[in-house]
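Quick one before lunch.
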Amino acid sequence: MRVLVAGGAGFLGSHLCKRLLGGGHEVIALDNFYTGSKSNIKDFLTNPNFELIRHDVTVPIEIEIDAIYNLACPASPVHYQKFPVQTLKTSVLGALNLLELARRLNVRILQASTSEVYGDPKISPQPEEYWGNVNPHGLRSCYDEGKRAAESLFFDFNRQYGVDIRVPRIFNTYGPHMALDDGRVVTNFISQALSNQPLTVYGQGNQTRSLCYVDDLIDGLVLLFEKPEIHQPINLGNPTPVTMLQLAEEIKTLCNSKSEIVFKPLPSDDPLQREPDITKAKEILGWTPVIGRREGLQKTIDEIVSRVS
Ligand code: NAD
Ligand code: UDP
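Model of the nicotinamide-adenine-dinucleotide complex:
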């Protein structure tokens, strides 16, 4: 198949391109390089099955392909909050433009949705049936509401036009090739620990996240894409939560760092808890993450060390 990966130069997008190329597909990566980087895809540039297009998904595109993965959207709160109007446009117009393309070509399309559709959840773990608790006008709403509107568009294109959609709700994912300056917790803590700078825990550090290693997540995305007729949201994430304070301590130990841990103000609307209920992914896809946090963090640290040294 010739597969379009929108956001293909980003963290998850570049891992997905690699997986699809390895599976014998032709891959066209489309990216505006807002948070993505050519260094993420440099290994594929000489591969005859790989093409790169600089394009913004808010603008319609005509291209002949057999399948679409839409990952185009900044994922780090620092970056999606810097230009919030663009973030919302990327989610909504990007979804609309790519759905129109999928409809015209009659091809399957996957939307990288997110645990952020649950906002600051009142129940834990979060099953797909939970409708969420989202501030519609807060600092995170450009991302949360953008992704919620994109989900609406995906399900309406399925109901109204029969477009063959896949909607994974991705929980926090980490691993090699994350941008070091993207402000997300894993890269912040690792960069700080490696340079013996203080690890900045926001709030008291008792908020939880469930961290999935990228290889597990990509397995889940591809399994979901390839499974017929899954027209419902599916949570993909590691079901083991960790507090941010515990994570800081783990990364400090793994980096053998002398850093102290300092506490900074908690950003507004920062969700207190995040834990996926992955019953559906297990039952429908036979998917469960296999890489534990210690192993995944070690691989991530090793890659960052090799990149900066
Ligand atoms: P990322 O920021 O590394 O990648 C996003 C990519 O999209 C970048 O290459 C960026 O340049 C590109 N992009 C942004 N706006 C664009 C636009 N208007 N037109 C074309 N390209 C554009 O983030 P990531 O972690 O790889 O996330 C990929 C997708 O997965 C995003 O849609 C994100 O919302 C979703 N997601 C990620 C996580 C996670 O923990 N990594 C969790 C939930 C959902
Ligand atoms: N966080 C932190 N220190 C940092 C960066 C983030 O304590 O240097 C916290 C942040 O407040 C949040 C969690 O780590 O509670 C995850 O943040 P991230 O930006 O990685 O993703 P989010 O899940 O909030 O979108």
